[in-house]
Structures are given as C-alpha cells and as structure tokens.
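(Protein data)
===
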Amino acid sequence: MGMFDTIHLKQPLVCPVCGGGQHSYQTHAFADVMADYRIGSLVSGDVHSGIVKETLWCSSCHQAGNRAESPVYHVIWHSILVGVEQDLTRAEARLSAVDRLDLIGWLDEAQRNENQWKRRFYGLLHDVRRWSEHLALQQNPEPVPEGETAGQAVRRKAFAGLWRLPEEILSAPDPLAAIIEKNTPDREENPQDDDISQ
C-alpha cells in the first residue's frame, strides 16, 4: 500500500453497508508522508482549495470478509482541511460556508494543543532530571554540614524534599515507568479525541 496519511474525525463516518462507524481512515489524497490530519489541519498536497474525492474502505466490513467501499470527500479551503463529507452536495455546502470564526476556532485549538504538549514535554523532562539527580545522590550522598543540629538536618531534608519526586514514584518497582505514566495524558485530554470538530 505504500505511504499514506491518516484523517482523524470526532464524528465517525458511517458505512452505508454495515452501519459501522470509523473515527479514522487512511488516505492517499495528500502528500503520503504518514501525517495525521484533523479538521482544521493544514494539509500538504496539490489542492489549495476544492473538494478531493477519496474511497472509504470500511474496516468492519473488511474484517467480516465483505468488500464495502463508498465515496468520501475532503473539503480543502486555502490548504486547510475544513471538512470530510460522504455526500458531494454537503461537501460543496461546507466549502462555501467556511468563515473567519472557523479559522479563529481552529487557530485557538491548535494553540491550546501546542501548550498542552509543551506542558507535558517539560513536565516529563523535569521529572526525568529529578530522577537522574536522585540516582546521583544515591551513589554520592551529600556530606552532612559540619556542626549541623538535628533540627537543622530535619529542615534541610524537608527543604530538599520540596524538589524530590513523590514517594510513590521513588518506591515504585519501576520508577521510570511511573514517571512516564504520571506524564501520560488522560483519555479526555488526548488531542486525537477532543480537538477535532467536524
């Protein structure tokens, strides 16, 4: 089959044969670079504005041994995927109905997703660095300051504890896996699920 791109949809496309829904499908209509597109994504390819017809293969029918295929129309406006329709008339109506509010909504969504991914990345990076520092201290503990009292030692350890990883991570059988799990987005935050409108 070669290279392809994947379209992700919030509202599934419905197979006209079995009624099964598909939230994503593969396409060769764009640049075939294994990119993931959603409504509002800037797409690469030869079409600047217009409607591109594609064939939708139903995965449910394919698993059942049936060969069901139906047309699907990608609606492109100034290189932005603005809609995916199963009816040409609806695709034409969608193309003519794009307005600035759509663009503002897609831009806002893209900026929120970028900020979420930055927070996740820097959170993971910060935790991995703290884990590395923890391992270094295990091998080379800091020397106890000369003349430190018991009260000062308690305060120093409490202060240092503000920057330590939580105890449930440090005592986990696989702390690195616990760090990754801590920084994995919840299902409702997954951009493939919540940032797509159709």
Q: What stands out?
A: Confidence is low (pLDDT under 50) at residues 187-198. The radius of gyration is 25 Å. The first strand starts at residue 5 and ends at 14.
